[in-house]
Amino acid sequence: MIEITATVESMDQLGKLLVSGVDTVYIGEETFGLRLPKSFSRAQQSEIIHIVHEKGKKVTVAVNALMHPEAMKQLPEYLDFLKEQKVDQITVGDAGVIFVLQRDQYGIPYIYDGETLVTSSRQINFWAKKGAIGSVLAREIPYLELQRMAPELQIFGEILVYGATCIHQSKRPLLQNYFHYVQLNEAATKERGLFISEPKKTDTHYSIYEDNHGTHIFANNDVNLVTKLNDLVALGYKNWKLDGLYCHGDAFVEIAQQFNAAKEWIQQNQWSETIGSQLDHKISEIHPQNRGLDTGFFAFDPEDVK
Amino acid sequence: MDTKSKRKKPEVLAPAGTLEKLKTAIHYGADAVYIGGNAYGLRSRAGNFSYEEMAEGVAFAKEHGANVYVAANMVTHEGDAAGAGTFFRKLREIGIRAVIVSDPALIEICATEAPGLPIHLSTQASATNYETLEFWKQEGLERVVLAREVSMAEVAEIRKNTDIEIEAFIHGAMCISYSGRCTLSNHMSFRDANRGGCSQSCRWKYELYDMPFGQERNTFSDQGVEEPFSMSAVDMSMIEHIPDLVENGVDSLKIEGRMKSIHYVSTVSNVYRAAIDSYMADPEKYVLKQEWIDELWKVAQRELSTGFYYHTPTENEQLFGARRKIPVYKFIGEVMAYDEATKMATIRQRNHFSVGDEIEFYGPGFHHFEQEVAVMWNEEGERIDRAPNPMMLVTMPVVESVQVGDMIRKKK
Fold first, then answer.
1. How close B51 comes to chain A (CA, Å)?
2. Helix%, strand%, coil% for chain B, nearest 5
3. Per the CB < 8 Å rule, is A170 touching B211?
């Protein structure tokens, strides 16, 4: 059974995403979650979980930040809240959070999300032994490696099939530091919409912004694996993530509709390359105009990356 | 419990890219060194050790009461970990004191296939809270290297809540990102930062711009901002904060730089050895010596700061604009023999120097002096004005006693 997880940025979008057919919604708050389209209040999180559960669907909450002691002090209270709300699962990227989940016997299922560090089946199976029910795969894994990993995985490996790929997280306020140095009064937030380009490659466009977790930089193009979904399913990768960090409102809902359509075609054994191309074309049209799309590391030869 | 009885002398842990650097670091006071093997490391371009070289290094370290650790801190992709069990067993057999690992696959392989070989969690795993340290302690790890983003107050907090050994970086270059959480190099250069290929993209200069929908890109340089965007930062030095590190229970003080020279390794090891010995001998009367700071500047490649220990780095700790000029010293030779009766030293040349040059001798235990090269002879006993050939042997009178292994530098 294919499971589509999608981020949510508003109550309005939530309703539409649930209608569009997503199975799991992904939410959180900025203290504990990384790079969320929206940081929801406790009351909102509670309401979302309630609504989603009424529809018989699931909620994943992001608890995937690298936690400094101050956040760890606030963590038990948040985990108590999530347990009380009967959250279905959380994502975790810090072994300290896993320690707390186990020490205090929270019983909240977790998906291991160590981001760039989740690159082999043996690592994932290590976290499976520590209670993880699934894992979020790094974006830097080519298809040939996914193929070799698949038969070895003891828990699922979720794949980002649409959205931005974070390729750098610094605790340093790199943009603020720069603006201070050049004496500009500029915002460094996601909404400011800043990019960097590589030296001598002016056509490159890596998104960059700052928040309470530091500075985040994203891959040149966002990922769109719609044409590869059948290949993923054939290998057993049935957990797909749609990330709406840079695609907002109804546009993101429409993106989700395309992936839900793909899921239906595949589940009915009616998938074809033509359908894949049509959906791909549609997604390109909906995708924000100032952002690129490609298939990330999927088509790379593992030997291409030294 | 009173502070004094808790106080523990921390280890000085130095980088050693080659056997020569390993011996130099230990000779200059390092309690332990970390090296790379031919596999599973993160510095593909640092000289890595064969098993034979490791064995020689371990034997040398044992003679001097020091330890050798092997960094195997690669983040493996599918299939990369094949053979790791054999590798770890071989290290155990050689007498490597511990391995530094971040990848849980490698940790598990080491723990199950080479039991008895202690494991230290690499900074690549970004450990920033005591619960993480407790997690790895439960897994049987001996030590955790903290993330470089941990503040001194956080070190204190972590130490209060766990008894696993703590290692912290005190000197050298720093990743700009949380270590391991950066694939700029993978995406920009097709070189895997977490598998030894990091192209240091964070040190590049970038164009910063916005691109509102339907418009051309709008760069800051077009608006007249001359300085390009960069993430590159100054290096770290904690020489002025040894008491904080000791009092907060850091067990191992780590110096970065397996790619650095013997000049660097000897100088930095020497300074921290002197400072820690001085503090431990009498903490109440400890005084930070200006000569230690001056000494570290002689091998500095960038300006120095305290990283995240006392505040989040600002623009002042980044490399923008024209920076203060750092005095540059050149390593010119090492003492191979010394005759106390005639006060003549035989020196192996490592960079050219001439009669009339002001040179500086330094040795373990922070022995230092300067003199002018007044006269010198080559191996044939001929008087020469210049020592132009790499590794040539030169004899000259020295104004103070020296020892084999002492080094010589000159201001550029």
1. 24
2. 30, 25, 45
3. no
